[in-house]
Each structure stands twice: as structure tokens, then as C-alpha cells.
Amino acid sequence: MFANNVNGRRLSEALRTxxxxxxxxxxxxxxxxxxxxxxxxxxxxxPDPRPDSPEESAARxxxxxxxxxxxxxxxxxxxxxxxxxxxxxxxxxxxxxxxxLSYHLHPESWGHGYATxxxxxxxxxxxNDLQAIRVIGLVRTANAASKRVLEKCGFCFExxxxxxxxxxxxxxxxxxxxx
Length: 179
Hints:
By secondary structure, the protein is an alpha+beta fold. The protein has helices spanning 30-36, 40-43, 54-71, 114-129, 144-152; strands at 5-6, 9-10, 15-16, 20-23, 75-80, 83-92, 99-105, 135-139, 156-163, 166-173. The chain is globular, with a radius of gyration of 15 Å.
């Protein structure tokens, strides 16, 4: 579906933004991921708002690494000043048309604009490098902060969908909207 090389650059290479290093996830990220998904404020908007077990975190990491192996891109490990703060990027959606944007940042990193910087980079990558025609963001109604990030980055509400048994708002962005 997508090429592994664009303009001579391997898609699996790390990207740098003004403040972020975005790199493919690695097995060494497992402990951080387990800690990340143990924070109640991070999992509060899920249908079952309980922290992930270490085994669930390991399975999440394996899926992310597997997506990179299968497609040459996926959710990045996000670092600031050499410190891992979360994961995010785009993946091929199995349930809806378009690439699925998702991100989870450590609560200590909230409020610094990292999510917006990550989303804007993921969008530029999606439309410029991957030639995507549609990116979706799925947000629970109660997650006002994620809704604000998506809207700030140009997403528009499309419809409500059921995701994992719970109503979820689908936001959409197409290439003509990105600056």
C-alpha cells in the first residue's frame, strides 16, 4: 500500500521536529510503555478505564513494532531531550477508511504543546510522504483535550462511531486542508 522509501529516505528513519525526536519503537521501550499505561488519567477515557497489565503493554508494543515491519511506518516513540515521553503517529486503520492518528503522551508532558507538534508532523508525513488521502482521529466525547488538539490541527468532526463498545467521535482531515 505504501512505499518504504520516499525521495531516497527510508520511512523507518527517525524524524526530528523543533523539539521532538520521533523514532520507530523498540523492545527497550517496554518498561516505559507499561508505566505510561498505568496512569489513571491516561486511560480514563477508555470504555474500561483500567491500567494495562505488563502483558497488555508488551502486546501493544509488539503490535506497534509489527506495524513498522509490515508497512515501514507507524506510531513513533516520542522523545524530548533524550527522554521518552510517549508514542504517536499514524497506522493503517482496520476498521475505518484512512490512516488512524493516535498518540499517548506521559501526563508529565501534557500542556507543553508536544501533542500538537506530534500531530502536525504526523499529518505532514501522512500527506507528503505517504500520499494519504484521509487521516482520521478517534476521540471519546469526554476527552476535551484531544478534541482541541485535533481541531487545532485542522480536523473536523465527521460522525459518531462505536469503538470497543463505546461511542467515539471520528474526526477527519484530507490533504487539501493541511498547510
